[in-house]
Design brief:
The complex is a heterodimer.
Chain A: H1 35-47, E1 51-55, E2 74-77, H2 83-99, E3 110-116, H3 117-123, H4 125-133, E4 138-144, H5 185-190, E5 196-200, H6 205-216, E6 221-227, H7 231-234, H8 241-250, E7 256-260, E8 263-268, H9 277-280, H10 296-317
Parallel strand pairs in A: 1-2, 1-3, 3-4, 4-6, 5-6
Antiparallel strand pairs in A: 5-7, 7-8
Helix pairs in contact in A: 1-6, 2-4, 3-4
Chain B: E1 3-8, H1 9-19, E2 24-27, H2 34-45, E3 52-55, H3 59-72, E4 77-80, H4 82-87, H5 89-98, E5 103-108, H6 122-126, E6 133-136, H7 140-155, E7 163-168, E8 176-181, H8 184-190, E9 208-209, H9 216-248, E10 255-258, E11 265-270, H10 274-286, E12 291-296, E13 298-300, H11 304-311, E14 316-321, H12 331-340, E15 349-353, H13 363-377, E16 386-387, H14 391-403
Parallel strand pairs in B: 2-3, 4-5, 5-7, 6-7, 11-12, 11-14, 14-15, 15-16
Antiparallel strand pairs in B: 1-8, 6-13, 10-12
Classes of the chains: A alpha/beta, B alpha/beta.
Chain lengths: ~325, ~400
Amino acid sequence: MSDPTSPELRAIKNLKQIAREEFILPGTAICGGCGGLAALRLAAKVLGPKTVFVNAAGCFTLLATFPYTPFKGSWLYTTMASAAAGAQGVRDALDVLIARGKVAAADDVEVVVVAGDGSTYDMALSATSGAIFRGLDFWYFCYDNESYGNTGMQMSSATPYGARTLTTPVGEHARAGTEHGKKDLFEIWRAHRPAYLATVSPRFPIDLTNKFLKAKQLRGPKLFIAHAPCPTGWLYDPELTADYARLAVETGIFALKEAVDGVVTHTYVPRRHRPVEEYLRGQGRYRHLFEPVRNEEAIHKIQEQVDRYWANVHETTGAAR
Amino acid sequence: MTQRTLLTGNAAAAWGARLADVDYIPAFPITPQTEIIELLAQWATDGTIAGRFVTMDSEHSMLTAAGAAAATGARVFTATSSQGLLYGFEVLYTIAGWRVPLVLVNVSRALASPITLEADHNDILSARDSGFLQIHTETCQEILDTVLMAYRLAEDQRVMLPVLVNLDGFTLSFTREPVELPAAAAVSEFLPPYQPHHAFIRGDRPMAQGAAVLGGAAYSYFRYQQHLAQEKALAVYEEIAAEFAARFGRYYGLVEPFQLDDAEYVLVMSNAFATKGKAMVQHWRARGVKAGLLRLRVFRPFPAAAIAAALAGRKAVAVIDQNLAPGLGGITYQEIAAALYDRQERPPLVSVIGGLGGKDISQGEFEAVLVALQQAAAGERVPGPWLLYTKPEQERMRTLLQIAGKEVQA
C-alpha cells in the first residue's frame, strides 16, 4: 500500500516530527485525563484520515454519539465480542469491491479495531484470534485501562494483582482486592505470529509514533496494547495521567516492547527501575495496600513479579541492566 | 438460458447466492446448513463466482463480518441454522439497526436442549423481532427464487433491511427436487448490482455508522424507522413478486392460498410440512370435505391483512405450529389470532403443536385436527394448544425411558 521508503514512514527522533494535524477532534464524552484517548490521538496521526475505526462496546463507544463523531475518518460500532470480525468484513469487502472495480483503489482505508481490555482480553479473544489466524490486514488498538471501565471499574482479566475494583473489593477473604494476575495478552497474541505486535504508552509518544510508522510498512495483523491510565477508575487526579503513564514504564510494570514476526524487542529499558511503590502509591485502587495498614506481602509480590519479568528479559536478550 | 436440474434445498440456496452475483460470503459450518457453504466455497475457489468466501470463527463473528461488509457496500450472503442463529443473535439486531441489506439463509433445526438435528421453527421464529425481514419457503425452486427476490427487497431504498430466508432442515435441505435455473443475464436484469446509497465505507466520504444514541427519543426514532420500513416492505414485496412472475413465470404471494376458494375448514401451516397439509386437503376434498390450506410465506413484515382476508368467514381454522413457546403455546397462532381480532367474521381457531424436532405429522394426527375443526365449527370450545403425539410414538418413548432406567407409569 504505502511506499516503505517514503519520508513520512521514517522513524522520528523528536516530538516536533509528530504531525500537528489532528484526526480525532476534542469535545467528546470521554473522561478528562483519559490515557487511552491520548494514545489513540497519537496513533491517528500516523494512520491519517483514510481510516475506519471498528469499535467494540466500551468507553470509546461514546466517542461517536449521534449526531456527532470526533473522527475525520469513518466509524463502525459493532458488538462487544466481534470488532475484529467487523474489521474482517470491512477489509474483505473493500478488497473485493476494489478488485471488481466497484470502489476506486484510492478510496481504500486502513481498518482499525478500537477496543478496551474488557472486550479484548475476555469475550473478543475468539474473534481476534480468528482474524489474526486468517492473516487479516488490519490494525488492533486495545486501550488497556485494566478493568471494565465504562461500567464503572469492575475486574477484567487485564486487572492486575492487588488492584481493587467494584467486583474484587477488599475484604476478609481478599486482602489484596484482585487476587488473579493480569492475563498476558501480548504473549497470547504473539503465539499467533502476527506481522506486528507492540505495547505503547501515551507518555512515550516518539516510541508510539515509531511503532505505528513501522507497522504501516507491514501487511497483516498489526496489534497494539496501549497502557491507558484511567483517573476515573484508578482513582487519581486527571492531571496525573502522564505521571502514572511514565511511572508504569519507569518502574517496569508496563514494558515497552514489540514483536516482529514473533521476535520480541524491548524498545525502552530503563537503566534502573524505580520501586513499584512509586507507581502504586497515590492510586485509589491500590490504597488498601498502604492504608490503614501496609500490606507488605502484596507490595512485595508485585515488586517480585516485575523483577522476575525483567530478570528473564535480561537473561534471554542479554540487554544491559 | 434457463436450465432444469435436480437440486437439494441447500444447493438451491447456494444457486440463489451464485445467481445474485454476491461479493462476499462469510461462513461457518453447522448441520444441516453446511452443504450451502461447501458449494459456495468450491465455486469461489474454482472461480465460478467472483465473490470472496471466508470461514469465520463463529456465527457471531460470521454475522458481524456479514453486516460489516454490507455496511462497506458489498452484496453479502451467508447461512446458518439453529444454535448458530442463536449464537449470533445479538448481531441480528445490530445489522438490522445498521439498516444494511444482506440475505441470511436459515436452515431450520430444533433448538437444544436436548440437542438434536431435525427441523422445527423455534430457531427462525426467535428472530421474528430482530428487524430482519423473514420469508419461509416450501420447495427447492422457491428457495432459489426467494433468495433473488430477497436481495431486491433488502436493497430497495424504501426498505434497507436484511432478509432471512428460511427452509427446513433435512425435509427440504437434503431433498432433491427439479429446479429451473434462471439464466444469469435474466437475473442480472431483475437484480442489478448493489449500489450503496446510504451505508458505505470509503476513503473519500467518511461516515460514522452504528453510532450510539443517548436518550429514549433518539432511540425510539430509529426503532420506529425500522418498523415503518417493514410496513412499507409489504407493498414493495408485492411489486417485486409481480415483476418476478412477469420475468420468470412463477408467482409467490405474501401468503399462499391452497384450495381456499370455497374452503370451510382451513389449515394454516408453513415451510416444508405444508406439503403434507396440502396432501391432506386433497385427501379430504376427495372425501367431500371442503378443506383448504393457507401457507405462511412472508412472515416479517407480518401480512396481517392478507391473512385475515384469507381466513375470515371460514367455518374453522387450525393453526399448526411447528414450534412451541413453553407456557404459551404456538407462536404463529398468537399472531394469527391477533390479525383476526378486529374482524367481524372471525372463525373459531384451533391451536395445534406438531412436528417438533422433525417429528412427523401422521395422517391420523391430521384426521384428529379435522375432528377438532368440526367440533369448533359446531360451537364447541376446543382448548389449545393441542400437543400432537401418537400412540406408537408414546410406546416407543416408553421403551426408551425404560432403557434409561426410569420408572414408567402404565
